């Protein structure tokens, strides 16, 4: 096929093209089953003829879904790299413009450009921007535009021959539930692969990949240090883990040292954890708007903690003196025998939603900030844990340590159930916060006035607050 040399100059800016990505499956660590599945696709792409003779065809579309930073782009590039095919990438959000007809024409342009270099790979990141459900709420406008773009993608994919893999389209999204079902039909994105957060061993493997070009005192020390980092980085994505190592490398160079040691790794880990956190203990330096948001967040967490009291883990006090992406609520040590029922799990999911629900309620959905960003991911993680590891839900009794252990069909089932639990949790949480709105306001006032509030005061306000009756929330 022609070389891509001139492509960049003459073509639309919204497409990026690479002759070869140079990325391989070795660059992606953890979640081995994903690689196994994609390796099979690469085998078919490379030996197209042979497989065709056996009646095996390459899928036309693969959808990778999961949180940002988990390596979806990396995997798409690895498929291109391993198959030795050119890589065309575009972002769904760039298709949608204010001018009518632009989305469809950009999609057309992308496919036409790619076709002339076939066989090749097309990667559409954030495909939900263009491929979300038709007739759904039109958030941010551009509904008709999106619809035309989506239809154009469908037309293009339907136009590929069933029997030859001229172009493989890879889509990425972090929301599979909002995608138009037409996209997921047979002959379109019918291979759906969940790319989740790495397990502890996955994190270690990712750290190992990104430590390949870094210097440590010894192999032994490197292993011990990375094990430690892996233990401390629950919830981290591959991108964040990579950042930890890069940052540690920079810190090491700045100190004119030759090898990365524990000190640099821990400092960099701390920075990564607190991307948004300053850890300042000085209330005076926290901007007023942020302080108000923090106060509401802490008040909401406090109200939920009273509504669903946890006798084993009582709260002691909270404050607005530090800016963290997690609540400032302090708890006493665990006590007694912990005996968890299903309702306890569900309640903890509801409680975890409080920072996000209150921020949305008070400041509006388009005006959310990082101070509630971790909340939804904690809640979703807790729901996942209930579904995968307790046998208490419709998911069934099997125990899965990692999402990575799930076959795709079970992944879809997990996604559906988790969406269900999250819907209930968010609704229940908003209902509690509306019922106790007056308590939320009073606790917020105390926090803004004094900077902190202890458990007795919180309980006092909670018990005395007038309540506003709410409709029951159906599970
Ligand atoms: P996404 O497309 O899911 O948002 P990216 O592929 O852009 O994520 O990830 C950003 C970077 O993070 C990658 O280029 C890679 O360096 C690193 N990374 C993410 N996940 C992994 C992983 N599982 N193994 C190795 N590196 C990873």
Automatic annotation (TrEMBL):
Keyword Protease recorded: yes
Q: Name one GO cellular component term.
A: chloroplast thylakoid membrane
Q: What transmembrane ranges does the database entry give?
A: none
- Compartments in which it is found: Membrane; Plastid, Chloroplast
- Keyword Transmembrane among UniProt keywords: yes
What is a biological process (GO) this protein takes part in? proteolysis
* Stretches assigned to the AAA+ ATPase domain: 58-199
One GO term in the molecular function aspect is: ATP-dependent peptidase activity
Keywords from UniProt, A to Z, are: ATP-binding, Chloroplast, Hydrolase, Membrane, Nucleotide-binding, Plastid, Protease, Transit peptide, Transmembrane, Transmembrane helix
The family assignment reads: Belongs to the AAA ATPase family.
Please state what the protein is called: AAA+ ATPase domain-containing protein
